[in-house]
Design a protein that fits this description.
The protein has 296 residues and is α+β, with helices and mostly antiparallel strands. Helix content is 29%, strand content 30%. The protein contains seven helices and 13 strands. Strand 7 and strand 8 form a beta hairpin. The protein is elongated.
């Protein structure tokens, strides 16, 4: 692969290469040879590494993806979709920020064993436009033609685009840029809730505290067209007042998010703390007040 015209970092037989250089060779210059070298180094053979790739794809619910080799070339059993590449890209950015930093590097130089250093540029032309793009990856196959997964970060807001079937390198860059800027200009991302922070307080029944704080396990955002952001609403659905005792992290209900009164998504809500039940005398008193006066 280092001599047959494929994208490569030009690893030759008996070269000594660091894992970091192999990673950068894959990410920055699309080194197919680096893919094979790293796969064999990790798993002993490329075939065994492919098993790990497919297991990871299944874990991420990339349901329309299959890997047949580590480089993605010369095998019809390599296939995916723009949606699955989006899933993978989002996972990479969120979970491996240290390695994601490699994707924005515009050039890569490594010192070959016994040879002159080799410098190559990043093939993602959007990195040179100074618009906030910091990744991700280009691709080319004979049938599928040119492809690009690109991500832009501007004012703390990140968008990812994935496109395939472009007829030229220029087209994949131009159209991906248009898509990213269209998303930034026409849509807003609204924060609904932050993970592990108190979202609201719900009434308890016969508890030592009259209310219990609830939280969601993940950050929740909604991205909508700007003209529709006033139509977003969110409601907590639960059966209350909630009887005590209440265990910490117990599921207490659901956060329902609507756009134009149509349900967009549901998210479980959990107790932020443990709430114990009051003693028997207070239980009797509160129960009496409730049945007589309707007051908890």
């Amino acid at each position: 692969m280092s001599t047959s015209g494929y994208s490569s970092m030009f690893v030759m037989l008996n070269d000594e290469v660091t894992v970091e250089d192999l990673l950068r060779g894959i990410i920055i210059v699309s080194g197919n040879d680096a893919c094979v070298a790293l796969a064999e180094g990790i798993s002993g053979s490329e075939e065994e590494f492919v098993h790990l790739m497919n297991e990871k794809a299944k874990e991420l619910e990339m349901n329309d993806t299959n890997f047949a080799n580590s480089s993605g070339i010369n095998n019809v059993n390599n296939y995916s979709t723009v949606n699955d590449i989006l899933i993978m890209s989002n996972y990479l950015i969120k979970n491996y920020p240290k390695y994601y930093n490699y994707f924005k590097e515009t050039s890569f130089t490594w010192s070959r064993t016994g040879g002159d250093p080799i410098t190559q540029g990043n093939r993602n032309i959007l990195l040179y436009d100074n618009i906030g793009v910091d990744g991700l990856k280009t691709g080319f196959l004979t049938v599928e033609q040119y492809s690009l997964a690109a991500s832009i970060l501007r004012n703390g807001r990140r968008l990812i685009s994935v496109g395939s079937g472009f007829q030229s390198k220029s087209a994949r860059g131009k159209e991906s840029k248009k898509l990213l800027l269209w998303g930034l200009n026409k849509f807003d991302t609204i924060e609904i809730a932050k993970k592990n922070e108190i979202l609201s307080y719900l009434d308890t029944w016969l508890g030592k505290k009259e209310k219990v704080g609830v939280y969601v396990e993940d950050d929740i955002y909604v991205t909508v067209k700007r003209r529709k952001k006033k139509n977003i609403s969110a409601y907590i659905e639960y059966n209350g007042p909630i009887p005590t005792p209440i265990e910490k992290d117990a599921k207490l209900g659901e956060l329902n998010i609507f756009i134009n009164n149509e349900l967009l998504s549901k998210h479980d809500i959990f107790s932020i703390e443990k709430i114990k039940k009051v003693n028997i005398f207070l239980r009797i008193l509160r129960s009496f007040n409730y049945f007589v006066w309707g007051d908890v």
